[in-house]
Amino acid sequence: MGLPIKNIAEILGAKVLTPCLHASREVIHAFSSDLMSDVLTGNYVNTVLLTGLSNLQVIRTAEMSDIREVIITRGKDVSREMIDLAIESEIVLLSSQYSLFRVSGILYEHGIKPVY
Amino acid sequence: MLMQFHIDGGDFVNAGKASSSIKRVLKQLNVAPELVKRVVIALYETEVNVVAHAEEGVIEALLEVEQITITVRDKGPGIEDIQKAMEPGYSTASSKVREMGFGAGMGLPNMKKNSDDLHIESEPGQGTTVKIINRLKG
After folding, report:
1. Checking CA distances to B30, which of A5, A105, B20, B98 falls within 20 to 30 Å?
2. Is the pLDDT assigned to residue A21 strictly greater than 90?
3. Spatial distance between the Cα atoms of B111 and B118, rounded to a whole number of angstroms
């Protein structure tokens, strides 16, 4: 069973940077990586990307990989352009103060499954 | 149907724009999602390579009944040893490219994985031409 992205935002105390966008869409899997080249090698269904990297190519990588939810960890600055591109690509973008490890751990505890 | 795009070397803000436009068109044409993904992943990897290494480049996407052919020509340093560049882990990327989350020597192998046919021709000091062919099944 999946977890709606709005519940994930609550659990993590994360900020939803793309308000109103597909908040009830469900997430089943998660993939954590700062290496976009690695993200680009996978196949994803209902997968959220967790990353400590914050730049436009993170959103592009998600778009090309059919990843529809992205969580930027450690409260890294997210640019206006990233948010605009996420909205344009219908990607739900969240920002969490927690570390990549902590976000991964919390989601794992809540039954989110690994991709590999 | 033929689509053309221009890529500026070093422009990481717009890297992926062409892949994004082509993805949208393929989706509108009801091309199978798995095939759309293969085409755009291979193209996006190529686009990032052009932005990372070349001065400029041109993308041509030709959509035909039986196949999708993407040709990317760039003006740039070229690839000295294509066979070596195809080896997983081999990279000549700058630190700036690595900071963006690329440059781990995974791009060319992933382009090959996501294309039915991949042709790379390169003239060191002149540029590189990449041709990505994916066939529509059924």
Report:
1. A5
2. no
3. 8
pLDDT at A19: 87
Residue B34 has pLDDT above 70, yes or no: yes
Largest CA distance in chain A: 33
β-bridge partners, B8: B56
Mean pLDDT value across residues B6-34:
96
CATH numbers and ranges of domains, chain A:
3-114 (3.40.1390.20)
What amino acid is encoded at B77 in this protein?
Answer: P
Segment A38-43 shows an average pLDDT of: 97
Separation CA A112–CA B109 (nearest Å): 30
Of A35, A36, A64, the CB nearest to B40: A64
pLDDT(B6) > 70: yes
Q: Which domains does chain B have, with CATH numbers?
A: 2-135 (3.30.565.10)
DSSP A42: -
Instruction: List, as ranges, residues 27-66 from A with C-beta within 8 Å of B.
Output: 34-41, 43, 51, 53, 55-58, 60-61, 63-66
